[in-house]
């Protein structure tokens, strides 16, 4: 990671949402990985919720966090595949004021090293709304690790240069 000299780490308030019809908080390894990683680097886990894959429940939870002045980023794992129940992108996309198209593109480029051509099934996306970053990731724990290590760790760090998301978020 390229770090600006004398830059200061800015801890962010981050909410984690797991979307799954089969997982529980006890066996949610993807949500746990994201929560653990963000806390390890110094961010604050402000909320962690697990919801069934229901477009309206997902949308309502994310909209609540976008409206909450304390939440600066929302990381969502699950519901981004092609099964009939996968609806996270449809739930979230209408809430975004500005899409971060490069997020999904970079995630798929990194993911190919892990899952090969299966990366074309990824509907990972991100965007900004009300100065809140919202990221939708696969429910696969390896994909969450790839996204954290390859994108989120740097982009959620104010010290990272030449640019990061922190200056676009509520402070």
TrEMBL record:
Keywords: Molybdenum cofactor biosynthesis. It comes from the Bacteria. Pathway: Cofactor biosynthesis; molybdopterin biosynthesis. The keyword Transmembrane helix does not apply. The keyword Ribonucleoprotein does not apply. Residues 15-159 form the MoaB/Mog domain. InterPro entries: MoaB, MoaB/Mog-like_dom_sf, MoaB/Mog_dom, MoaB_proteobac, MoCF_biosynth_CS. Pfam families: MoCF_biosynth (PF00994). Belongs to the MoaB/Mog family. NCBIfam families: moaB_proteo (TIGR02667), molyb_syn (TIGR00177). May be involved in the biosynthesis of molybdopterin. This is Molybdenum cofactor biosynthesis protein B.
């Amino acid at each position: 990671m390229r770090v600006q000299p004398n830059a200061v780490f800015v801890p962010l308030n981050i909410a984690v949402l797991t979307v799954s019809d089969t997982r529980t908080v006890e066996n949610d390894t993807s949500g746990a990985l994201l929560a653990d990683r963000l806390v390890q680097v110094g961010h604050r886990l402000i909320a962690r919720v697990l919801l069934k894959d229901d477009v309206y429940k997902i949308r309502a939870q994310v909209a609540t966090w976008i409206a909450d002045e304390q939440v600066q980023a929302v990381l969502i794992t699950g519901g981004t595949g092609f099964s009939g129940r996968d609806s996270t992108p449809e739930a979230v996309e209408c809430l975004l004021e500005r899409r971060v198209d490069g997020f999904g593109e970079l995630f798929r480029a990194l993911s190919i090293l892990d899952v090969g051509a299966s990366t074309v099934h990824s509907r990972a996306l991100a965007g900004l709304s009300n100065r809140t970053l919202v990221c939708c990731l696969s429910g696969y724990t390896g994909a969450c690790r790839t996204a954290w290590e390859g994108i989120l760790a740097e982009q959620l760090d104010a010290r990272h240069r030449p640019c990061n998301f922190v200056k676009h978020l509520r402070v």
